[in-house]
Design a protein that fits this description.
single chain, alpha/beta, Rossmann fold, 6-stranded mixed sheet, 3-stranded antiparallel sheet, 4 helices, 9 strands, 32% strand, globular, binds guanosine-5'-monophosphate, binds magnesium ion
């Protein structure tokens, strides 16, 4: 385990098993449809890559990069789009893939935005959820795991751009982000 990690919440094997399960569920629920999977950079990159390999149907992939206005530590709900989608999503079945839902503000904004672009449907797959922190009513259609209110890193999730490549999901030691 990395010395900056306090505790492993989900091992590489546990994450892989969950992602496989979610992929199978998504495959069943979108039977006969084509899916546009939209990964939210950069945190969802690992989850997205593993998840689409477990979806057994026609899938296109696109990515968005967003950042929250205001203080970087707290989500403001107003989202700046750093990288938009490559193509129109009109009439498409869209699945947004996120790393973690915290206040819910980012996803709430994104979901509304994509619905306004006249997608046929917009659903959300999130690897992690911190329900205690929610400020707007939103929940993922497909969820990996619920987590307590700690700062999580690994499997795509960063602190100051580090720890994304840890193969597991863990809790960052508070002294690392407090110093
Ligand atoms: P929200 O708008 O739901 O508050 O913010 C969601 C975004 O904040 C996530 O997509 C993620 O990028 C970031 N975030 C929230 N909680 C954590 C956490 O515990 N660890 C990391 N690394 N990022 C988090
Ligand atoms: Mg994110
Ligand atoms: Mg981050």
């Amino acid at each position: 385990m990395h010395t900056d990690v306090q505790e492993i919440l989900f091992t590489e094997e546990e994450v892989a098993a969950k992602v496989r399960e979610l992929g199978e569920l998504i495959t069943r629920e979108y039977q006969g449809k084509e899916l546009l999977v939209i990964g939210i950079l950069k945190g969802a990159a690992m989850f997205m890559g593993d998840l689409v390999k477990r979806i057994g149907m026609v899938v296109e992939m696109d990515f968005m990069a967003v950042s929250s206005y205001g203080k970087s530590s707290e989500s403001s709900g107003v989202v700046r789009i750093i990288k938009d989608l490559d193509k129109s999503i009109e009439g498409r079945h869209v699945l947004i893939v996120e790393d973690i839902i915290d206040t819910g503000l980012t996803l709430h904004y994104l979901k509304n935005l994509l619905e306004q672009r006249n997608a046929a449907s917009v659903k959300v797959a999130a690897l992690l959820d911190k329900p205690e922190r929610r400020q707007v009513e939103i929940s993922p259609d497909y969820l990996g795991f619920s987590v307590p209110d700690h700062f999580i890193v690994g499997y795509g999730l960063d602190f100051a751009e580090r720890y994304r490549n840890l193969p597991y999901v863990g809790v960052l030691k508070p002294e690392v982000y407090q110093s």
